[in-house]
Specification:
- Helix content is 47%, strand content 14%.
- By secondary structure, it is of the alpha/beta class.
- It has a domain of 116 residues: Indigoidine synthase fold (3-Layer(aba) Sandwich).
- Strands 1, 2, 3, 4, 5, 6, 7, 8, 9, 10 and 11 form an 11-stranded mixed sheet that branches.
- The chain is globular, with a radius of gyration of 18 Å.
- Bound molecules: pseudouridine-5'-monophosphate (PSU) and manganese (II) ion (MN).
- The site of pseudouridine-5'-monophosphate has 16 residues, from helix 2 and helix 8.
Length: 298
């Protein structure tokens, strides 16, 4: 299978210029239209202002694109037939000539395959609260364990079991590194009671930790935890109540599988009068900014 980088992305990789990989599920189902498209445009602008090439990754009619044009972003942002594609589904999506938005697992896999070193997202997938009965644990975690990339995020999807996810990341050998924080950020909130053993406060140190990991033969990702700005956060106490209510509603409506994330995100946005969406956009753009600076520092 061939991956298709845009001319801009190909030129940048060939000339050793900085490139930042982005997933596209955040555009397809993480945010509503038109905020999703506006988010992408702002993310691209942040990258270009830092002389970094943005490389959003998506499968369009069976072709794996690395670096999207405006029409392709519009397609991912508006078309309900776009599938959510994790790493194991790249092949079936390509073979069937289908379109798919990439998650952390598929986007990081493809980014690594084409030679990109840094990837920014909002929150990674992880271990669900009802893991004991459902065994629901995101492929993102396994993927992070076998993909040598710098991955910038603000924690895990807000409605997951953070403690179990942190344990799993340890089991899977994924390095956690706080960026200007000594505790694991909670997506909508900038801090938590979960201590991070290591942190740095500049991008050069992120790059040098990653290089040491590579030199010692590690194949796993370096997960950089970048908390949302305090001025944009929603206090944990407030958001946790809202998340619990949304989960109850989801169970009542018997929503399962792939429908859970869109349902919960919509419900949380409704209950916070869209503040959660603003916070989500703020943290994701902040991760793009940090990711672009890290890519530039290589
Ligand atoms: N975090 C969010 N919203 C999202 C995602 C993460 O707040 O939509 C997406 C990311 O693309 C992540 C994926 O990789 O969800 C994980 O999905 P799952 O839990 O089904 O593996
Ligand atoms: Mn899952």
């Amino acid at each position: 299978m061939k991956y298709t980088p845009s001319k801009q992305v190909k030129d940048a990789i060939n000339n050793n210029r900085p490139v930042l990989a982005l997933e596209s599920t955040i555009i397809a189902s993480g945010m509503p239209y038109p905020q999703n498209k506006e988010f992408y445009n702002k993310a691209a602008e942040i990258c270009y202002n830092l002389d970094v090439v943005p490389a959003a990754i998506a499968i369009i009619n069976g072709v794996v694109h690395v670096g999207l044009d405006q029409n392709q972003v519009e397609h991912i942002a508006t078309d309900d037939s776009v599938n959510k594609i994790s790493k194991r589904e790249i092949g079936v999506c390509v073979q069937g000539g289908l379109s798919g938005a990439t998650t952390v697992s598929s986007a990081s896999h493809i980014a690594n395959a084409v030679g990109i070193k840094v990837f920014s997202t909002g929150g990674i997938g992880g271990v669900h609260k009802d893991y004991k009965s459902t065994l629901d644990m995101s492929q993102d975690l396994y993927s992070l364990s076998e993909t040598p990339l710098v991955v910038v995020c603000s924690g895990v999807k807000s409605f997951l079991d953070v403690e179990k996810t942190i344990e799993s990341l340890e089991t899977l050998g994924v390095t956690l590194l706080g960026y200007k924080t000594s505790n694991f950020p909670l997506f909508y909130s900038s801090s938590s009671n979960f201590a991070l053993p290591f942190s740095v406060d500049n991008v050069e140190d992120v790059v040098s930790v990653f290089k040491c990991n590579l030199e010692s033969g590690l194949k796993s990702s370096l997960l950089v935890l970048n908390p949302v700005h305090k001025s944009d956060q929603i206090p944990a106490k407030t958001i946790n109540k809202i998340i619990s209510k949304s989960i109850s509603k989801m169970k009542l409506n018997k929503i399962v599988g792939k429908e859970t994330t869109p349902f919960l995100l919509k419900n949380i946005a409704k209950q916070t009068k869209n503040k959660s969406l603003e916070t989500n956009i703020s943290l994701a753009l902040n991760n793009v900014r940090l990711g672009a600076k890290i890519a530039k520092s290589f």
